[in-house]
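Re: Re: ligand-bound prediction request (bumping)

Still looking for help on this. To restate: I need the protein modeled with manganese (II) ion bound, output as structure tokens. Inputs repeated here so nobody has to scroll up.
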Amino acid sequence: MKAKILVVEDNPLNMQMVRDILQYRGHRVLEATTVEEGRERLSANLPDLVLVDIQIPGGGGERLLRDIRADGRLRHIPVIAVTAFAMEGDQERFLKAGFTAYISKPIDTRQFGPTVESFLPQDGKTDA
Ligand code: MN
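Reply:
Sorry for the wait, this slipped through. Here it is.
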């Protein structure tokens, strides 16, 4: 399924890598670098899936997640945390916070695309 994926990431090199991988696989990529921009893209575009860096300006990825889960139009959207935090217990913490999944940096460029796609909604419907 070709999806509309929002990437919220403030590091330009990470953004470029993620964008390249997803676009190569046929997905449409929307970009934001802050919590505020993320909110704007979300309400304007209703993406199929969101990838969010935990450390982003404006309150962090967990803040954006809370906004998504509190919005009836958005709360069904899978939200994957992408972060360099790799301490014991982090994965559990992120899942408990309500993230659909957790991908650690540095990104494994071969696994990243298939992993993200495994969390896409399975109904195959998209307005992208
Ligand atoms: Mn960051």
